[in-house]
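Inputs:
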Amino acid sequence: MPTLDFWFEFASTYSYPAAMRMAGRAEQAGVDVRWRPFLLGAIFKQQGWPADSPFNWQPAKGRYMWRDLERICAHFGLGFRQPETFPQSSLLAARVATVGMEHDWGQDFARAVYRAEFAQGRQIGNRAVIALLLNDVGVDPEPVLAYAETDVIKAKLRRETEEAQRLGIFGAPSFVTADGELFWGNDRLEAALAWANR
Amino acid sequence: MPTLDFWFEFASTYSYPAAMRMAGRAEQAGVDVRWRPFLLGAIFKQQGWPADSPFNWQPAKGRYMWRDLERICAHFGLGFRQPETFPQSSLLAARVATVGMEHDWGQDFARAVYRAEFAQGRQIGNRAVIALLLNDVGVDPEPVLAYAETDVIKAKLRRETEEAQRLGIFGAPSFVTADGELFWGNDRLEAALAWANR
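Outputs:
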């Protein structure tokens, strides 16, 4: 079965519709998708960019993005509520997702985080919120949170982020095929699956 | 008939496929499209950005863009050759297009400029190249070039650029519907036409 790597960042707005659409589209396309959380902020930092989201330091683009995201969510029937805080800290969620992808609840957890952040007005940087989301996907929160904050997981997420940068990734969501083609953005999801299937 | 404003910049890479696809898609959709050249560099400058293209001062994004554009052109059957000089000066071409849109040769000229720049390896900042392109679309170059460099046309293009900025435009190509919806990027062309047609 063809494969595709799906690189996502929980602070990334357009990663939300991509994450919600991915499982269905991948099944239709017959592509096996590996979900790979990473930290985009670390890549921005290495490029010498401001620590803040480009959608904040580029206000016209930011205003457009929120409206565009609202239209996209309406189009795909996804809930949407503009978060009061943006960007939110995605570090803990990314560490927990790194654990989850080693088990069978990673994708459910990732979707739950995106829904909490972009449809339910919740704060995903909050440990108690992450614990509730773990509970929702049927996982006992405390052992997972404890493991997510060990050096093993911290180092794994750091290596994944370095790998993303090595692959030329500069934004999220990004998709990388087995032959190294990079696609960037929710609006390239179908093109990436089609390329994987060539 | 529903209408749509198509804002384009000759230095903009993704404006090339949008310009080549627009007439056919607009006819299919039954939408009357107004082609509006403007100067994106002036908007970047007002935002305090570097004078250079973001694809140059964001090298990872730049590398991605050239590959993405190559794939898009292959997909749509458009010629493509990465220009040796990027970005090219678009000022004269934009002034001439401003004249052309007052007549019936504006769209043909715009397509000829994009083809020259992104498929034929020619320098669109060069007055002699613009003269040849005018010739190709059946227009006597010298009177048009002289008129394009009068204060009347310079001021008109400046007003159009100010209008683009007022509409929230921060990139090209952009599409604006009669009810004020803004869409950005070649990959939003179909969504913009569909919105115009609602």
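Remarks. DSSP finds ten helices and four strands in chain A. The beta strands of chain A are 3-8, 32-37, 174-177, 182-184.
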